[in-house]
């Protein structure tokens, strides 16, 4: 019986020991006298105790002393005892933590036993604490990151509820934390943002559905959100691994504005704020592509005499004028849809939508010519420019933008060669003409570089005395491909390309240097074109030609045409007056053709009138003879020398002599001839006069 009981007890003890041994915690049991009853090996190992010393029967204090001896405890045994004792004595289980000398943290739980002793459970919680600490640190960092983000951030749970929201989001929305409490659903968020007047109203159903769909597909979604106060937020949403998503908000107002400015710069001309070439092209392509059945008129525009404005008044004035022209063009359009663009320099273009035939386009062209030809007044200065237009009609003159633009240009160019302030519709055949003209212009440039120009000289005689008064220099072009080209065939082209300026300058120098070798008193007449006179350096080039050659100013005669005096800018008249004051004579060439010229004689007192050769040719006609006599009479009245051009017969000369004409020029008097021949002629005449 006793044996049986003993066996059972032993078995029970063994099971108890096994259970204790297999605990993951350290365990130690003490009796009422603070003697250890039992402990497990976890306990021994947590404290690195010597199991030879720490055995059942050892008193609690001795264990503490032992742990101090082996250097595990961080305090003295008495202190340790004083700390632990109050916990041990409690009626309930109590837990506290102790830090060992090696830094480990041990959680100790004391539980009183009914028999008066107690049980202590020990657990090394160093790792757990470290992990907790780390997590805490992570949270701290996350919070810091959230708070310091330049972007607003919202995080939603898989149930679409708000779980994280940073301060920046509230700042961006100028909202309070209370407006958007955690737990709010995505839909409620959007509703609130609209209701509070933060977001510009949006279709919330669509918005919620879109976000849901893209995020469920595992994709990110971004969009721009317009705010009521005019700002723009860029919102980007990304799905999270465990469900839900994170949305970031960025204020892109400035960037957006910069982008808009950039795009404006790319599409608009900075000076005039008109659409630029690329924008014009875009609109034209768009019109052709989207409404191919709508007729269009494409206008190519170019200012007349703009270069003269720039040269005379300077670039700031030129810029000002371009702005004014742009403004007038803009107002000149009658339809909202029509487009006017600045293509560059003084070139503009207009796209007219749905004109009712050519008549409609013509109406617009006339209006443009008329608005631009009004003078531009700035700071007391009157600037005069004109505008020329070339017009191509869609679909008649081309099906694609390139052809239409090219044909409008061709029409413009061909119009320009015929005069200023004109508009021209494109016609087939213009192309070849314009191409020819372009080749001529480039050929002329080469000709100037290669010195293919020469001057012939034609004598001018005094009818009464029969003596030679001087000679007119006439330009010739010895082209290796075209042969000898007459000035009527190239002067206009040289004027258009501006080449007349260096070419005319050369003629002046050459003529003066030739005339320097002539007998004293012989005049040299040089033709100068209007374009040349308008160039800034004209007066200086005349003076320098005289200075270099040594020819006195009184021997130089500049032949100008009416168009020079028609120039309304005072600049040209001022230049001429300045030259005339130096003693240079001004002759009005080709008098009688073109405009009725008497009013121009009042604007500028010329020294000489040259009656155009067409009048002399027709002088047999009674009416023509009357006109010639009138001009001669007028000259005598005003004290202006009159020269008759193109005198070919004795009969013509006789009529002129009778009418009292002062000078004559023509094949009868002498053909235009080489400088050397002219010099010889003048010398023999001078010698015979002396004899
Ligand atoms: P223009 O100044 O009226 O010159 C007179 C033109 O009449 C010259 O033609 C001359 O050869 C021609 N001519 C002279 N006598 C007679 C005649 O009896 N009968 C006929 N039928 N014609 C006669 P050209 O040399 O062909 O010059 C034509 C025009 O070219 C000139 O007319 C002038 O306006 C211009 N030109 C000539 N040289 C220059 C120049 O150096 N600079 C500029 N800007 N223009 C020039
Ligand atoms: Mg002449
Ligand atoms: Mg003439």
Question: Would you summarize the structure shown here?
Answer:
The protein contains 26 helices and 26 strands. It is an alpha+beta fold and 691 residues long. The termini are far apart.
3D architecture notes:
The protein is an alpha+beta fold. It folds into 4 domains: 106 residues, PAS domain (Beta-Lactamase); 103 residues, 2-Layer Sandwich (Beta-Lactamase); 172 residues, Reverse transcriptase/Diguanylate cyclase domain (Alpha-Beta Plaits), CATH 3.30.70.270; 204 residues, TIM Barrel. Helix content is 46%, strand content 22%. The strands form 5 sheets. An 8-stranded mixed β-barrel has the order 18-19-21-22-23-24-25-26, surrounded by 4 helices. Helix 3 packs antiparallel against helix 4, helix 11 runs antiparallel to helix 12 and helix 12 runs antiparallel to helix 13. The longest helix has 23 residues. The radius of gyration is 53 Å and the shape is rod-shaped. The relative contact order is 0.04. It binds ligand C2E and magnesium ion (2 copies).
CATH class of the largest domain: Alpha Beta
Overall geometry comes to rod-shaped
- Compute the number of strand runs: 26
Chemical compounds bound to the protein: ligand C2E, magnesium ion
Write down the domain tally.
4
CATH superfamily of the largest domain: EAL domain
SSE order and pairing:
Layout: H1 2-21, E1 26-30, E2 36-39, H2 41-46, H3 60-69, H4 77-88, E3 94-99, E4 105-112, E5 118-124, H5 126-148, E6 152-156, E7 162-165, H6 167-173, H7 186-195, H8 204-216, E8 221-226, E9 232-239, E10 245-251, H9 253-267, H10 277-290, E11 296-304, H11 306-313, H12 315-332, E12 339-344, E13 347-353, H13 357-373, E14 376-378, E15 381-383, E16 386-394, H14 401-416, E17 423-425, H15 430-449, E18 453-462, E19 468-479, E20 483-485, H16 491-497, H17 500-515, E21 523-527, H18 530-534, H19 538-549, E22 556-560, H20 562-566, H21 570-581, E23 585-591, H22 598-603, E24 608-611, H23 613-617, H24 622-638, E25 641-644, H25 650-659, E26 663-665, H26 675-690
Parallel strand pairs: 16-17, 19-21, 21-22, 22-23, 23-24, 24-25, 25-26
Antiparallel strand pairs: 1-2, 1-5, 3-4, 4-5, 6-7, 6-10, 8-9, 9-10, 11-13, 11-16, 12-13, 14-15, 18-19, 18-26, 19-20
This protein binds ligand C2E and magnesium ion (2 copies).
Residues 589-590, 610, 612, 645 line the site of one magnesium ion.
